[in-house]
Amino acid sequence: MSASALSARCSQSRSWVDSAVRLIGADTRRSADTHLLRYPLPSSWTKNVDVSLYLKDETTHITGSLKHRLARSLFLYGLCNGWIDENTTVIEASSGSTAVSEAYFAALLGLPFIAVMPASTSATKIALIESQGGRCHFVTESTQMYAEAQRLAAETGGHYLDQFTNAERATDWRGNNNIAESIFEQLGEETHPVPEWIVVGAGTGGTSATIGRYIRYRCHDTRLCVVDPENSAFFPSYASGGADVVTGVSSRIEGIGRPRVEPSFLPHVVDRMLSVPDAASVAAAHHVSRVLGRRVGPSTGTNIWGAFELLAEMAAEGRSGSVVTLLADSGDRYADTYFCDEWLTSQGLDPSASADVLAEFERSGRWPRSSAPRDSGPSDVRNSHSAANAKKPR
């Protein structure tokens, strides 16, 4: 290609990219910020201790989950780095909410989107991705997703978004209405505008990286707690200091937990980690769904379990303050899994003992020393206080 022809092609692509960035910006402006809900803690014990719990409701994004923010950032990152143009096939390794949101943005820009996922992915998730215009490409094992996504990108001349590597670098953690900035702005007129804790799970690690960096950038006293489900590599890696931990088993809590430590997970911005049994995550999702009058997803249950534990600690020590966590996605996506008794039984998940813990917390504000059910699943994580409770020195 001659120099003049190459220059003309670059000019045409630049014009398309400028238009694409404006389209995404317009979509952002049309979307009101997500709500910050105050969770109704019982007056039976909060009248004696001044603590509050807030839920950042990410289910109100147009694609229904926290991953809408990540997908928007990944597309802008690819566009502004010159990796995505009007002829690009966009590819991701995801069977969940990230792929749903990415399919939305690909359709907004008129680009083909392929989600690489295990053949065992639920029909509900496949339908959600396809409803946004995406195409699903299947592999036998989840460990094959990364390499297959890279292969497809090379084969099509496309771009692999690679959420697990790029999540922490694609998000503007200093501001620009990221989730951390939004939380602190919305808390501005509350009794405790600077929370004691923000509690999040880790899937890519991007959300915890964004919030942890922002806390330090703004010099807040807030601490960041990351909650992790069974079978995930993040907690044992954090506890041991080894970045090469591999569990070889997939998480049963969709949206969070990974069998390896993903590049976007930044442990040094995390102040504490809690390992939460899967049955406890399910019990908490059911509990909060009843309180709010609408279903929330299982990763929200993991978040709530950790937030309740921290609130109980604050109450026991007589410390005032607020805790913030996320409603990551709607539980309506999981009607045939986490809200189905037959499915829970097939997975060996019995939330009844954990439900008793939650009922006692609501009644008294207290949290037992050993709160996990005796049979907590294949990885046998049984105590979210001692061996499964890691803190970094401050």
Helix content: 40-55%
The average pLDDT is 90
Give a short account of the largest sheet.
Answer: 7 strands, mixed
CATH topology of the largest domain: Rossmann fold
Q: How many strands in all?
A: 11
The first-to-last residue Cα distance is 57 Å
Organism: Mycolicibacterium vanbaalenii (Mycobacterium vanbaalenii)
EC number: 4.4.1.1
Family: Belongs to the cysteine synthase/cystathionine beta-synthase family. Cds1 subfamily.
Keywords: Cytoplasm, Lyase, Pyridoxal phosphate
Could you characterize the architecture of this molecule?
The protein has 394 residues and is of the alpha/beta class. Helix content is 43%, strand content 14%. It contains 14 helices and 11 strands. It has helices at 3-30, 43-46, 67-80, 97-109, 123-131, 145-156, 163-170, 179-186, 206-217, 234-240, 278-292, 298-316, 341-346, 352-364, and strands spanning 36-38, 51-57, 90-93, 113-118, 135-139, 159-160, 197-201, 223-229, 272-276, 321-327, 389-391. The longest helix has 28 residues, at 3-30. The protein starts with a helix and ends with a strand. InterPro entries: Cds1 (IPR047586), Cys_Synth/Cystath_Beta-Synth (IPR050214), TrpB-like_PALP (IPR001926), TrpB-like_PALP_sf (IPR036052).
